[in-house]
Design brief:
alpha/beta; Rossmann fold; Arc Repressor Mutant, subunit A; five-stranded parallel sheet; four-stranded antiparallel sheet; 39% helix
Length: 235
């Protein structure tokens, strides 16, 4: 597996924490578990894990609130879980910046598979470019946005655009298909990589966040709304 990945499991149900910790440890991950968001937050002020598995319904601070707190500070991948299989839970979790969502009860094997998938998407995102003078001609681009897919980085001139996993997936797809319009349903399928049952507002929220981030690096590229249809990236 290479260097051992660390995962924080945050769930107030001790039996659930124990099962998740057992299966993830068996897969070679370094796991720490917490019963409250507050306890996990104290640890994260000192050290961030490589991933969080976060229950929505927690005593005291909720999983939603902790997710918002984390997203103000880090793009660490987050898988949110909930005992309530309600669409609003799924959508709100994704809108807040989580990378995946699981409804309880779920198979521990499914959890492990989701963890692997998210880490796979993130692989290479921390790589350092050794030769910044390398020609960008070989990389997909749109205007001044350049996709370095193997490194999971998107550059604007000499600045890296700070992106969550889902933001990267969407912007990378649009860069590779610049000027082509896609429906929200098509974009949902591309970004999540499996059948997504939920509200297409998740894509609207991703687009809103991406527009802010593209603007923050003064890019000339623009995600354009195709009214009555969807979105496309123009440069």
């Amino acid at each position: 597996m290479g260097s051992q990945k660390s995962i924080f499991v945050i769930d107030d149900d001790e039996s659930v924490r124990t099962v998740m910790e057992r299966y993830l440890t068996r897969e070679g991950y370094a796991v720490e578990s917490y019963a409250t968001a507050e306890a996990a937050m104290l640890k994260m002020k000192q050290q961030l894990p490589d991933m969080l598995i976060l229950d929505i319904m927690l005593p005291g601070m909720s999983g939603y609130d902790l997710c918002k707190w984390i997203r103000l500070r880090s793009e660490v991948p987050i898988i949110m879980v909930s005992a309530r299989d309600e669409e609003v839970d799924r959508i709100l979790g994704l809108e807040l910046g989580s990378d995946d969502y699981l409804s309880k009860p779920f198979s521990p094997r499914e959890l492990v598979a989701r963890v692997r998938t998210v880490f796979s998407r993130m692989r290479g995102s921390m790589n350092v470019i050794e030769n910044e003078a390398e020609s960008v001609a070989a990389f997909p681009n749109c205007a001044d946005l350049v996709l370095r897919e193997e490194e999971r980085r998107i550059m604007c001139k000499n600045t890296e655009v700070s992106l969550t996993s889902k933001e990267f997936e969407l912007l990378a797809f649009l860069i590779k298909h610049k000027s082509k319009a896609f429906t929200r349903e098509q974009l949902l399928s591309q970004v999540w990589g499996y059948e997504f049952i939920g509200d297409e507002r998740a894509i609207d929220d991703l687009v809103k966040r991406l527009r802010k981030k593209i603007s923050s690096v003064n890019s000339t590229a623009e995600i354009v709304t195709v009214w009555g249809f969807g979105y496309k990236l123009e440069g």
